[in-house]
Design a protein that fits this description.
Layout (H helix, E strand, L loop, with lengths): L1 H12 L1 H11 L12 E11 L10 E3 H13 L5 E11 L1 H12 L5 E9 L3 H6 L3 E4 L4 E4 L12 H20 L5 H8 L2 E4 L2 E2 L1 E4 H7 L4 E2 L2 H23 L1
Parallel strand pairs: 1-2, 1-3, 3-4, 4-5, 5-10
Antiparallel strand pairs: 6-9, 7-8
């Protein structure tokens, strides 16, 4: 209480600090969360890889996420991770690298698709131990392509084809969707305006086997705590 009063006094005495909080967070007082054994990692906007995107783009830089994942793995106080996804996709190799890192964490992980988990967001969404999608969220599945470039030589096409195969195999291996179904969704014509692919909404993603369950924050937290308890029980049995 005393600390909050001191912070409030500092804000009042320092107008620039108050303005900064309003600009950054849209409010003056930010509720402080208690120490938690769960880490929340958000992947918002476009996944930025080796090429820097324009400043007006909302991006998640993969070089910022990678150190966080290493820190999560090394921190004994963190027992579980929630991945919040609202992404349009982005750099294929960067997104696939993040998905591989998340899937290789030794700690329980749960993802929630909020708004959208499009394109390379699909492998990230399925990389966790258990996945959720809110009813109104969508996931766009489409072939890998290089925007603005013309395929002029067979080698370029082969490179894209192999990259696409890597993404496809990752999704199939980390979810319950069948390869035939995933290919049908990826190459469907007419679902996307003047393009190839499919928009999958909420419950359909669960029906196809990509996502485990329809749900939001409360369901995800309950599942993650369940996974954490299971991990602790398994470790205690090994020690005995």
């Amino acid at each position: 209480m005393k600390k909050e009063q001191e912070e409030k006094k500092d804000d009042q005495s320092n107008p620039s600090s108050l303005v900064q909080k309003i600009q950054s967070l849209g409010q003056t007082n930010v509720p402080q969360a208690p120490d938690s054994n769960i880490h929340v990692l958000s992947i918002i906007g476009q996944v930025e890889g080796h090429v820097q995107l324009p400043p007006q783009n909302k991006t998640t830089k993969y070089e910022h996420i990678i150190p966080q994942l290493i820190a999560i793995e090394q921190n004994p106080k963190i027992e579980g991770v929630v991945i919040l996804l609202n992404t349009v996709g982005g750099d294929v190799e960067a997104g696939l690298a993040l998905a591989e890192m998340i899937s290789s964490l030794s700690k329980p992980t749960v993802s929630i698709v909020l708004g959208g988990g499009h394109s390379i967001g699909v492998p990230i969404a399925v990389s966790t131990d258990y996945s959720f999608i809110v009813p109104t969220a969508t996931m766009t599945i489409h072939p890998v392509r290089l925007t603005g470039l013309v395929i002029g030589v067979p080698q370029t096409f082969e490179y894209l084809d192999k990259m696409q195969e890597r993404v496809m195999q990752f999704v199939i291996n980390h979810s319950n969707i069948k390869e035939e179904k995933f290919k049908d969704l990826m190459f469907a014509k007419g679902n996307l305006t003047r393009d190839i692919g499919t928009n999958v909404v909420g419950a359909d993603a669960v029906e196809y086997g990509m996502i485990n369950e329809v749900g939001g924050v409360s369901e995800a937290m309950a599942k993650l705590n369940e996974l954490i308890d299971s991990t602790k029980n398994a470790e205690s049995q090994v020690i005995q």
